[in-house]
Amino acid sequence: MLTFLKNVFKKGELRRKVIFTLGILFVYRLGAGITIPGVNVGSLSSSDATNGIFGIMNLLGGGTLERFSLFALGVLPYITSSIIIELLSMDVIPALTRWRKEGNTGKKKKDRVTRVLTLLLAALQGGVLTYAFDTSYNILVDTSIWSYIYVVLIMMAGSMLAIWLGDQITQKGIGNGVSLLIFTGIVSNLPNAFLTTYNNLVTYDSGMWLDIAWYVLFVVVYLSIVVFVVFTEGAIRKIPVNYASSTSVTMRAREQTHMPIKINSSGVLPVIFASSVLAAPRTIVSFMKASSTTKMINTIFNYQEPVGFCLYILMIIGFTFFYSNLQIDAEKISDDLKKNGGSIPGVRTGIETKNYIKRVLNQVTVAGSLTLCIIAAIPIITPIIWTQTENASLSLGGTGLIIVTGVALETVKQIKTYITRKEYHGYIRK
Fold first, then answer.
1. Is the pLDDT of residue 19 over 80?
2. Contact 278/272 with Cβ under 8 angstroms?
3. Model-level pTM greater than 0.90?
4. Beta-carbon neighbour count of residue 282 at 10 Å?
5. In which domain, by residue range, is 197 found?
6. Residues 165 and 199 grouped into a single domain
């Protein structure tokens, strides 16, 4: 670890990239703590902004929603826009499908459309959030139409600024900018979660040492979950691939080639979408007058209830299969192998290769979906078994932990790749 950190800050260019990235993240967290002018957050408790779909938004933003800060929307409109454009590119809109096949040129066109859609979604989400919270909690000092427009415009500007900061990290820093912004927001809440859990578990009386032992157990459980998530994020299924070659030397070198398929190739998206789908109806009825209908909706779509929990698990499994097949195109992989003279041992090229890759992907996705279900169920089951951890349940496992570990592993991998490339470059120059 120490050697890794030494290598990071020893390389001049890498050191500048890391410092630049940390500076941008500091600016983002600084803006996250500034409340939008004209908003009275004193009337808004933290629990009001952590229920339903608002809880997911608050988690991804690092508590920005409960403070109604400049970055209250964060990068969520951009994420939603990217997913929508990606789905529409799957033979739904011909232009987007064509751009998808045009390489960098098509990617730039899709990015421009994504940014426009992001702006529209930011306006929609900002308007809905402002109206909903003002109706229920009277957060606006001035309730005129111009005050609504003013707050929404600031939220839109904050969201676009957050995306721009993420782009700067991607271009001039290290790692994926948007992912690092979400990572920073979630990590910033961890100290408060541990402190809250400590205050809940430890009482300064005759049984204090027993309470401290329980808290140590909590930390051990948390670290165990982290290890489990790291293991699942790095787990892959290797498919051997052979390439035709004119020389036996090259053939022997290429016999070791393999095609890696991640156990969890869909990432955290299935958990986020399943949570959002279940949370949306409950969020809507929370602003309605209580009745038997609203009570029934809360019971059905509450994943802390048996019916809601089953729906939650089934949705995670379904979304995992959907996004895995979206991320890995078996037909395209089969065509690429055929064009490059590659083949899977014991499998004919063409249709059989495509079917084989699909079959392996589905088998792997079964394990990946079950893993996601286990991780997603941890913050639901833990407070029931261990009531003192209720306030830390959102950080203990689930969406936040998957995002944090995934982003951390990917960033460290990029840094190691950069260091290795520089070392080889220096060796070649010598």
1. yes
2. no
3. no
4. 20
5. 180-430
6. no
